[in-house]
Amino acid sequence: MEVKKDILWRVYLSFIGIALVCVVIIAKAFYIQQVQGSYWRGMSDSLHQRIEEVDAERGTIFSENGEMLSTSIPQFDIYIDFAAEGLREKSGKRFRENVDSLSFYLSNLFKDKNEAAYKNILTKAYKSKKRYFLLMKNVSYRDYQQLKTFPLVRFGRNKSGFIVEDKSIRLNPYKILAFRTIGLARDSFKVGLEMTYDSLLKGRTGKRLVRSIAGGVTVPVEDFQIAPESGKDIVTTLDVFIQEVTENALMNMMIKNEAENGCALVMETKTGKIKAIANLGRKNDGSYFEDFNYAINPSEPGSTFKLITMLALLEDKKVNLNSTVNLQGGVWSNNGRNVYDSEVHGRNEVTVKQAFELSSNVGMAKLAWSNYANSPSTFVNHLKALNIDKPTGIDITGERRPVVYTPGSKHWSATTLPWMAFGYNLSITPLQTLILYNAVANNGVMLKPYLLNAVQDEGKIIKEFKPTVTVQKICSDATITQLKACLEGVCTDGTAKSLFKNTPYKVAGKTGTALVANGNRGYADKIYQSSFAGFFPAEDPQYTIVVVIKNKPHAANYYGSSVAGPVFKEIADRLYTTKVKYAANNTANNNAVSNTQYAFAGNKNDIQQITKTLQIQYNDNTALEKDWLNVAVTNNQATATEKNIHENMMPQLNGLGLKDALNICENLGLKVNVQGKGKVSYQSIIQGQKIAKGQVINIALN
């Protein structure tokens, strides 16, 4: 019995001992996990190091005249390691001595919290020994430079605990301007030039050693780093002024007509350089944005395609401009379907040239049918020779292939040829239309469109791009001459006659109005696509322009001459006065033997002093209170006339020097952006337009 008690006592004692040990272990585990958990996790993390890639600074995209279209700017995320030895030495003396002044400066810099709030946040984070406390994200370079001078921060990373992570963000200074063409560069989503030339722009990534600390975040180890190599810069063919003019002209019409989407393109005729591409789509709230590159998206072109029909007929000598065709009052039946002229004209027997000028669908369809019905491949081969069935190869990723049906294919029918003759039963991009019209303007030489002038490395050109001929001659000189006559006739006697009446320069162009399908609803919604394609000045083309606008369903105004045509004209007017006419005047002045007649404008006192100094006879009959004058000088005689300045109306600045232009604009309350040197040759707010204080005006000097 005594033996049994002795055994039981020992068993109980052992059980109690084991139970006590278990309690101690559980208590210790709880203490380590709950009380010391963050400390040991931080210690564990600090033992892990890895190599991390560092993105290079992305290259800048410039316009042809050197303005930034897309660039990278630095931003900084600021963290504090409150467990840093230098911050906690001597019982945190350095922190305590600087926290008040640091809080004051942080409050003044970021202006998001008061001084007391900053001190409270910093003190709490210090007490909890936070290893990677986020102070502020997305700090600008200027603010970061100030931050480095603040109390505590200026002691450096080891003593202050401040950790800086730098990054860069992509900025489009002109925002919507050519936004889709320039593209985006955000994470993996890129479009436009940003995507096409990504390999050049992104540079070479670097490497750095990073150490993990609490919370899984990392800090760089300064002893090891392979520096990244910055990306190359690219210089585009885009002209900011032309792009702005194009964008504004398109935007005005889109808003006025509540259109669904549209695009406008400007090409330098003799080089193939794309000077502007505007793409606008309507958002749900009714505003417009560069949401899609409509310029490289194919659709049925409508009547602007009739130029190809005329080219085929003239080149194959099927007709001449004086040949006749019966328009039958604007209605013609073919294989059970009716062809209608979009505008009522009531004409019957007309010449081929007149049929083109009237934009007669019946005329083009009948001519194509009567001359190519037995050999439709002959007609289609003209399209292939003009590369209409292929993408242009422009340096923007995302260009879609055109759709051109061929005889014998499943899509070819008895009505394909006549409908194709006036721009239906095929789809091509506005860019292809631009190239075709530019080839006619360029005397038959077809050029490849391009957007890149050069690649630069730290300002040094390492690669240049030149014009590329894709078709040496699209047709004979005789055909080119006749095509130009037809296009000029459209603007003097045809569908665009009223549009270009009294225009000081000649235009060669073609209107287009196409009924387009609306998905599964087909053509029931009466959605029309308005277009205008052409070049100017007709006798010596400098620019080729194409405008395509898709109107809303059942739009009251949808003809090419009244929707797309005015956009073309607004662009052409601005380019003529600021580019073409100015260049012509400069050439004339450079070739002149003597410059006996000229004009300028300026401040009255300055003009009187200049004429006196140069001993020019000065005639001034203006009112005494007038400060600004226009002056014409002929044969050493200057005649002054009043330059009217009204408080709420934009005056004419052309001819003024920069000092005078700034004086006038700033007195009117305008904010001025200046480009160039010399005298004012362009102002973004036109003369006579109402102005408001604080409004921004862009002026260019010649």
Structural notes for this entry:
The structure is a single chain. The protein is an alpha+beta fold and 702 residues long. The chain has 3 domains: 50-236, Penicillin-binding protein 2a (Domain 2); 240-584, Beta-lactamase, CATH 3.40.710; 597-701, Trypsin Inhibitor V, Chain A (2-Layer Sandwich). A hairpin with a 2-residue loop joins strand 29 and strand 30. The N and C termini lie far apart (121 Å).
Number of domains: 3
Form type: extended
Class per helix and strand makeup: alpha+beta
Q: Tell me, what is the CATH class of the largest domain?
A: Alpha Beta
Helical percentage: 25-40%
Count the E strands. 33
Q: CATH superfamily name of the largest domain?
A: DD-peptidase/beta-lactamase superfamily
First-to-last CA distance: 121 Å
* Contiguous runs where pLDDT drops below 50 for at least 5 residues: 586-596
The name of the CATH topology of the largest domain is: Beta-lactamase
The percent range for strand residues is 25-35%
Return the average pLDDT rounded to an integer: 84
Chain-wise SSE layout:
Elements (H helix, E strand, L loop, with lengths): L1 H34 L1 H10 L2 E6 L6 E2 L5 E13 L4 H26 L4 H13 L5 E8 H7 L9 H4 L1 E10 L7 H4 L2 E2 L2 E2 L1 H5 L1 H4 L4 E7 L5 E9 L6 E4 L3 H18 L3 E8 L5 E9 L5 E2 L16 H10 L8 E3 L4 E4 L2 E4 L8 E3 H6 L3 H12 L3 H10 L17 E2 L11 H5 L5 E2 L2 H12 L4 E2 L4 E6 L2 E5 L4 E3 L5 H16 L15 E9 L10 E10 L6 E8 L13 H28 L5 E7 H10 L3 E4 L7 E7 L2 E6 L15 H10 L3 E5 L4 E4 L12 E6 L1
Helix pairs in contact: 3-4, 10-18, 11-13, 11-17
